[in-house]
Amino acid sequence: MDASLDGRVIAIAGAAGGLGPTVVRRLSGAGSTLCLCGRERAKLEDLATEAGAHADVDVVDLLDPEAARGWAAALAERHGRIDALVHLVGGWRGGTPIEEAPLEDWGFLADLLVQTVQHATQAFAPHLLESGRGRFVIVSSGQAQAPTHTNAAYAAAKAASEAWTLALAHRFKGTGATANVVVVGAIVAPEMRAEDPDKDFSTFTPAEEIAEAIAYLCSDAAASMNGQRLTLRGAV
Questions:
Q1: Domain harbouring 180, CATH code
Q2: Cβ contact 24:50 at 8 Å
Q3: Domain presence at residue 3
Q4: What is the pLDDT of residue 3?
Q5: What does the pLDDT look like over 118-141, one tens digit per residue?
Q6: What is the model's pTM?
Q7: What is the rounded average pLDDT for all residues in the chain?
């Protein structure tokens, strides 16, 4: 089956984050048209310039469900269809023993890691179904399946976002659309290696490998993969 992304219209939520540039380079290089979303226009425009003419940018607050629906509708009108949504919105709070952990961290992480997934998928699901080969991909953490007590809120939020994604996969069953999870450890991006060339990143998950996995899951080659966790945990 074809692993090409030529001509696909792919939306990327959280494109300006640490993983975003590597994913943008990989998907743009495969010939897809990219629609980049985030909160900082300057960073998004820099990414769009790097990706070339086949990218556009929108500043969207995915904590606002109407803003998410508006973004999806605008992309569908602009490009005629939407073939994939890649969710890269991320963040972390933790490092405190569970009996001392501030419960405010849960509210912050639930908004960032769960509500943005809920709002984005509700907005984009009709368009991904209409595509006939729609794809939804989220990047998650091994903490969701094997939580540590100093990361309880983070692990719980990631587990919730995975559960929502797997429920979306059930909605997509038999439609040609898919929803899948890429499970990673700590991420090392090329910029991090350049800044600290002597650091041992052997237990990290390279951003390039994550981008390859996302490209694969967005392609026809992964048409039979739905409701799956693809694990890239580094040399653990």
A1: 3.40.50.720
A2: yes
A3: no
A4: 62
A5: 999 999 999 999 999 999 999 999
A6: 0.94
A7: 92
Q: What integer is the mean pLDDT of 189-201?
A: 77
The tokens describing 175, both together, are 């439609």
**What pLDDT score was predicted for residue 172?**
98
140: β partners: 183
Range of the domain at 50: 9-232
At residue 234, the pLDDT reads: 56
Token output for 126: 């009709």
Residue 72 lies in a domain: yes
